[in-house]
Structure to design on (398 residues):
């Protein structure tokens, strides 16, 4: 059966992914199961999406109830789940106003438009520029790709959006050098995810914040991957103590339903997008908002942030053992439960080895393993991860 599913899927799906030959069927807690019943410990969480793991009953129940009540009405009308998700998002993020989207990339599009509109309102003219970081990742739509610092992703689609200048992450002078009269925003991930799990230096963020304040530039934090508790704070800016003007979220926001968000301070909102400037048909409909709303409740009732801080420390120690034990492991880095383990060579074989031994992991760049378990991970899960990973690394070494 697995082979049929794979073969038939490959006949019809556009070949934009080299998928692993695994057909997943269901999940429970920290585990996923394929169609043949093989169990996988999950340290990928659907790319940082499934923060609550799989099969959380309260979450599932909230979705089922909303399915029976109301899925969609368009953004022409109000509904209670949208009000609830909005209030909870604003409270958790420390922003004042939020716009819900269908995806991360779409949240980036909105953030860029919000920054441009703000500059336009203040100055009375257009033609503004954005500074982004090398090795950043902000998504695959044309606007998001324009601020993504990865030549390989961009090459075939040039020319993209005009007026983007790239600076080096964690190199403040390189950012300052790119500032022009026309600069309206600086966009960055507080912890670069796809680029290889590189946390920002606290001082880098503080100096950028100061630069933005001096020059009237908006600071946009892309927290699509590193937000929603992954650092042990609800959002990474709270971990760093540097507040952005505009913030994007997605991935774990819905824990599996497609919802993203861009949010901003009141000061930005007052001079930014107005009726007619932006919209979405599905974005933030009652169904996905009921899910996000329940996610915020469960983070509190389950003590998710506390678990992330404790398990983040434990995972860090565990990964440090790998750095000591294996010459092929260069270093570990990250914050909380967003961690990278860098090797001297490609990690593809290790990922396949882990799969054979019953564990899912992904990479972030050729040589970097990315460890992003569901935020409900326990010590036993981390120990089991270490057993399996150790086996896979030893086998790979020959
Ligand atoms: C995943 C990701 C995106 C894009 O989100 P999609 O939902 O895939 O469009 C943008 N920024 C960051 C930091 C991400 O990790």
């Amino acid at each position: 059966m697995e082979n049929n599913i794979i073969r038939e899927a490959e006949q019809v799906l556009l070949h934009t992914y080299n998928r692993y030959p695994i057909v997943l069927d269901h999940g429970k807690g920290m585990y996923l199961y394929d169609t043949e019943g093989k169990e996988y410990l999950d340290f990928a969480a659907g790319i940082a999406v499934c923060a609550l793991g799989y099969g959380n009953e309260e979450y599932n129940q909230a979705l089922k109830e909303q399915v029976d009540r109301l899925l969609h009405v368009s953004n022409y009308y109000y509904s209670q789940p949208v009000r609830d998700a909005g209030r909870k998002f604003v409270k958790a993020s420390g922003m004042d106003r939020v716009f819900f989207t269908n995806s991360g990339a779409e949240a980036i599009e909105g953030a860029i438009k919000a920054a441009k509109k703000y500059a336009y309102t203040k100055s009375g003219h257009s033609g503004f520029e954005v500074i982004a970081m090398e090795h950043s990742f902000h998504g695959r739509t044309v606007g998001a790709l324009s601020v993504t610092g990865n030549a390989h992703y961009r090459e075939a689609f040039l020319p993209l959006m005009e007026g983007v200048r790239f600076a080096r992450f964690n190199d403040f002078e390189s950012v300052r050098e790119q500032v022009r009269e026309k600069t309206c925003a600086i966009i960055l991930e507080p912890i670069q995810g796809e680029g290889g799990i590189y946390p920002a230096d606290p001082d880098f963020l503080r100096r950028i914040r100061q630069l933005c304040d001096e020059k009237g530039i908006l600071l946009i934090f892309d927290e699509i991957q590193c937000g929603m508790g992954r650092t042990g704070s609800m959002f990474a800016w709270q971990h760093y103590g540097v507040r952005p003007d505009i913030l994007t979220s997605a991935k774990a926001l819905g824990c599996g339903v497609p919802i993203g968000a861009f949010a901003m301070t009141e000061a930005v909102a007052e001079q930014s997008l107005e009726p007619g400037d932006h919209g979405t048909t599905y974005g933030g409909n009652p169904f996905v908002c009921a899910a996000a709303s329940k996610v915020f409740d469960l983070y509190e009732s389950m003590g998710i942030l506390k678990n992330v801080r404790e398990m983040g420390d434990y995972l860090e120690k565990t990964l440090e053992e790998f750095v000591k034990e294996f010459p092929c492991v260069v270093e570990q880095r990250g914050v909380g439960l967003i961690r990278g383990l860098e090797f001297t060579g490609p990690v593809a074989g290790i990922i396949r080895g882990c799969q054979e031994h019953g564990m899912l992991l992904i990479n972030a760049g050729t040589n970097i393993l990315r460890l992003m378990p569901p935020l409900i991970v326990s010590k036993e899960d981390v120990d089991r991860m270490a057993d399996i990973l150790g086996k896979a690394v030893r086998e790979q070494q020959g």
Q: What stands out?
A: The chain has two domains: 2-55+303-397, 70-301. The mean pLDDT is 98. DSSP finds 15 helices and 17 strands in the chain.
